[in-house]
Write a structure and sequence with these properties.
mainly alpha, 278 residues
């Protein structure tokens, strides 16, 4: 049985990120098109709203991690992968290949959303459900835009490292950590997502943005301003900073794990901790 091959890892990152976009951009499409409520102009967000989007993205992350987390830990985010490269828990070349797989997965996820809501796109014309953008009043606040993405991704990585650290910290037991990561993304969306739409993931924004530029709206909408750099550069700064913050300013103050009792003879004890694998 083939296990832990590079091809399998790249496939997992592709599938996980595609699922993330299918469910995440899918909820955005459902809100913007108000598919079951009539046009938003007739019933503006009467049942669908920002909370719907935030919950949808949170559960999208949880599902994607549950599906592929056992293979790679479900990075599904170049900011997470870059943090792993900097921490030397993944080889740089492997990490770069992960990032390519993530962008391709996000591109494919956007295609699935486009096909799923094709009737709404055809009836309504182009509506951006694929990528993030600054909120009204933030269009010209470039430093604020970068700060929002850096801070959001910083909180994401600090939270993820705390959640998966069930050796030293109070991480969840059993297999609840993907659900808790989803709740973390929900919290970021509800609390920090307003200024930029909380991409906090370069692949999540760039892959669908590239798809939209080629097939659903055109390059002038997707890349008409320099904003498209914000959800790439911001998370790639904030992610590693969050991981290093946890490593050097949280982890050293946690209690040292006690020595495990000797394992029974013949038991398989060759399991790396989830925290270190991340």
């Amino acid at each position: 049985m083939r296990r832990n091959t590079l091809g399998g890892q790249l496939w997992a990152e592709f599938v996980g990120t595609a699922l993330l976009i299918l469910l995440g951009d899918g909820v955005v499409a459902n809100v913007l098109f108000a598919t079951r409520l009539g046009a938003p102009e007739a019933a503006p967000f009467s049942a669908y709203n920002w909370n719907t989007i935030a919950f949808g993205w949170g559960f999208a992350v949880a599902v994607a991690v549950y599906v592929t987390g056992g293979i790679t830990g479900a990075h599904i985010n170049p900011a997470v992968t870059l943090a792993a490269i900097i921490r030397r828990t993944i080889a740089p070349v492997t990490g770069l290949l992960y990032m390519v797989a993530q962008v391709l997965g996000a591109f494919f996820g956007a295609f699935l959303v486009h096909m799923l809501y094709y009737g709404s796109f055809a009836a309504r014309g182009y509506t951006n459900v694929f990528y993030t953008g600054p909120a009204s009043g933030y269009e010209n606040l470039v430093l604020n835009q970068y700060f929002a993405e850096i801070l959001g991704t910083f909180v994401l990585l600090v939270g993820v490292y705390a959640i998966v650290d069930n050796v030293r910290n109070v991480g969840p037991g059993a297999n609840l950590w993907p659900l808790m990561v989803g709740f973390l993304v929900l919290a970021i969306g509800l609390s920090l997502g307003g200024p930029t739409g909380y991409a906090i993931n370069p692949a999540r924004d760039f892959g669908p943005r590239l798809y939209a530029a080629l097939f659903a709206g055109g390059a002038s909408d997707a890349f008409g301003t320099s904003y498209w750099l914000v959800p790439i550069i911001g998370p790639l700064i904030g992610g590693p900073l969050g991981a290093l913050f946890y490593d050097f300013l949280i982890k050293p103050f946690l209690p040292t794990p006690s020595e495990p009792e000797p394992a029974p003879r013949g038991a398989d004890v060759a399991h790396a901790s989830t925290a270190e694998a991340r």
